[in-house]
Amino acid sequence: MIKKDNIEELFELVLIDEEDGVFANSLVSAPAIERDFVYFNQEYTFAAVSDEKMLIAGPMLVPNKKILRLKDDGTKYYVYFKPETIEKIARKFMKNKFLDQITLEHGNKTSGINMVESWIVEHPSKDKSNLYGFTLPKGSWFAIYDASDNPKVWERVKSGEFNGFSIEGLFEHQKSDVKLALEKDIEEFTEEEAEVFLGQLKAIIRKDKRYKAKQRIEMESYADYGDGVKNNAKRALEWADKNGWGSCGTPVGKQRANQLAKGEAISVDTIKRMHSFLSRHEKDLQSSTSYGDGCGKLMYDAWGGKAGLGWSRNKLRELGLLTETEAQPSIPNSTYPGEVAKKKKNDK
Fold first, then answer.
1. Is the pLDDT of residue 166 over 90?
2. Structural domain for 41, as ranges
3. Do 90 and 169 belong to one domain?
4. Is residue 3 part of a domain?
5. What pTM, to 2 d.p., does this model score?
6. Residue 336 lies in a domain
7. Same structural domain for residues 167 and 291?
8. For the chain, first and last CA: distance in Å?
9. Looking at the predicted structure, is the pLDDT value of residue 122 above 90?
10. 17 and 125 together in one domain
11. Phi/psi of residue 197, nearest 5 degrees
12. Which one of 6, 30, 47, 189 is separated from 58 by 20 to 30 angstroms, measured CA to CA?
């Protein structure tokens, strides 16, 4: 059984980096629990409306809604968005013209589905979303997608195979001072936690190409990173033990530091995330040269530092997951806007 901490951490998701924000939306059947995804449970699933027009309507983001996350050891933490952040995200999404960026189960892009309406809820009881059966908090981001150019996906929506939006994006985590209710250590998941954990396992399996080929699936992990990676993580942890993390880091980042310092094996997905984080935040070292100088240097070394960047890059190349000429990091489970949509057999 998995044992949980009795302190539940809460983090606000914000936009800081230039690349932060939502860059795609996915039609999903189960919760997405990774850092780049946001999914609401059955309380806010989308609605298939108008057989004639083939419209899909539902909330993209809801303010101040606590979204459950689980660490690898089963420890819970939550994330949420403030209304003003949601408005910024929506504006940036529209400005970047990501209206046709749709994936299925956070996999390949699909074509023929386009956002045709999008707005921020101002008056919950008088909002247009009421027509589709929703009464959402002020500040929610609501959207309507037209699926008329992809009738096969529309049928999958109508049949209930897909029942929710799950946005794909990048956000920074800021520790909230709000204290959540404490719980005693327990040995069993609640229904919501079990659903999230099951969604996590399904997502891992679904991404493996051997799943479709009905081959045996084993979760590969690697621990062949050098002492440079371990020592960087150890130094970051030792400094944090004496001085505290302050506002730096997320549960994922702190967990990663502990894994690397101990020399534990990490999964391919974690290696991808490691490469993504270290590539994106390498520029932070220009303004943060010591652990006491902001969060940049501290969190960079927590993820393995320069040694970690080199190892993760070489490991992904070795596994055929990163080309020699690839300029941008590959974020796990994400499809970048601008990539050619790969059609599946059951898509139009």
1. no
2. 9-178+188-207
3. yes
4. no
5. 0.58
6. no
7. no
8. 44
9. yes
10. yes
11. -65, -40
12. 189
Q: What is the pLDDT of residues 325-338, one digit of tens each?
A: 444 433 333 322 32
For the record, the structure tokens of 273 come out as 């995330």
The total of structural domains in the chain comes to 2
Mean pLDDT of 136-159: 91
Per-residue tokens: 41: 């449970």
**Do residues 123 and 100 make contact, with C-beta atoms less than 8 angstroms apart?**
no
Residues 26 and 160 in one domain: yes
Q: Give the 3-state DSSP-derived string for the chain, with helices as H, strands as E and coil as C.
A: CCCCCCCCEEEEEECCCCCCEEEEEEEECCCCCCCCEEECCHHHCCEEECCCCCEEEEEEECCCCCEEEECCCCCEEEEECCHHHHHHHHHHHHHCCCCCCEEECCCCEECCCEEEEEEECCCHHHCHHHHHCCCCCCCCEEEEEECCCCHHHHHHHHCCCCCEEEEEEECEEEECCCCCCCCCCCCCCCHHHHHHHHHHHHHHHHHCCCCCCCCCCCCCEECCCCHHHHHHHHHHHHHHHHHCCCCCCCHHHHHHHHHHHHCCCEEHHHHHHHHHHHHHCHHHHHCCCCCCCCCHHHHHHHCCHHHHHHHHHHHHHHCCCCCCCCCCCCCCCCCCCCCCCCCCCCCC
Specify if 331 maps to a domain: no
* Statement to judge: residues 44 and 113 lie in one domain: yes
Cβ atoms of 105 and 163 within 8 Å: the answer is: no
Token pair of 151 as six digits: 């009738």
Measured distance CA(213)–CA(29) in Å, rounded: 21
